[in-house]
Fold each of these.
Amino acid sequence: MIRECEEHGYHRNEVCPHCGEEGKFIMSDYEVEKVGRTLAGILRHGKYGLEMDSQGFVSMRDVLAKVKERNPRMGWIRTRHIEALVETDPKGRYAISGGKIRATYGHTIPLDIKLDCENIPDELYYPATPEETELLMEAGIYPADRAMVHLSLTYRDALRAGSVRVDDPVILVVDTGVCMDMGSDIGKAAKTVYLCRHVPPEALSIADPDDYEDSDDEGEDE
């Protein structure tokens, strides 16, 4: 659920993680899920015919109207409820600016989003199934069901993301320097997610799980 602490703002805990106050109820987990699904449909997949600019932004007013239309029992929802969802999303999936909202990653529609290409880590990570690993190592990584290749900040992030598809994913290490030197720029999309159009095979290696046994357990899946 989402609550609002008078002093520290929105949070998704039973009580404010900063002061321990319960705060004002904003949305239930069920409502967060319903709104989130509609946002994903609009902002990631271009559903429902709303006008979207080249950066993926859609008018918050239009999005709010569509959320109400798609969820008739939530006629009470206001802009602040969507702002609360965005601000507390642990994965940083959405961004609001100038009365508009966009998805930061996960698009299945072609866009020309400008990403932050500064301070890219030396290595990023990509989860693969055992069956596709050999092909990826030979041909590189291209987008599959999304418009761009999604890379994870840490080994653990990639492991979580890959576990959605397969029980024991193979984690590929991406040498970002090689990748960018070969003409495939990488940009930061969200807290733990980076995007690029193609990862060449020369930039790939297979991670040894033993090397990451003691890696931190922070971060979120995609």
Amino acid sequence: MNTTDKLTKVLEQIDRTDKLREYVDDLEENLPYDSFAEYYLSLEKVKTTGKAELILKSNIDRTYGYQILNGTRKPGRDKIILLCLVAGLTLDETQRGLKIAGEGILYSRKRRDAILIFAFNEKLTIADTQELLIQFGEAVLE
């Protein structure tokens, strides 16, 4: 049983609001990262590449990219995916980044997400990923 399943079982047993508050407070205290930027910049692949190169290769506006990485702007789902692709992150690392940011994870039953999962698994470049999305008639990452 994974950690999420265990936590769900604990949550199912809570029957009073004071217990719920205690549970929620514990969750907040145990989150290792406060933001996507904090998580992303902690990864070794990101550290070795550097902010300027990541922003340039992701095709994100330079100012906006720095605001994302400095934590002053909250990135949307596509921007997170672009930054993760350009850094060469794994699917698991990307899913974790999406969760931390409060964005929906890539879901294998959604056509566009399935294509993106394939791109991560095959370690495709952004250009190749965009081309694949176009080829399948899906919206490109923006």
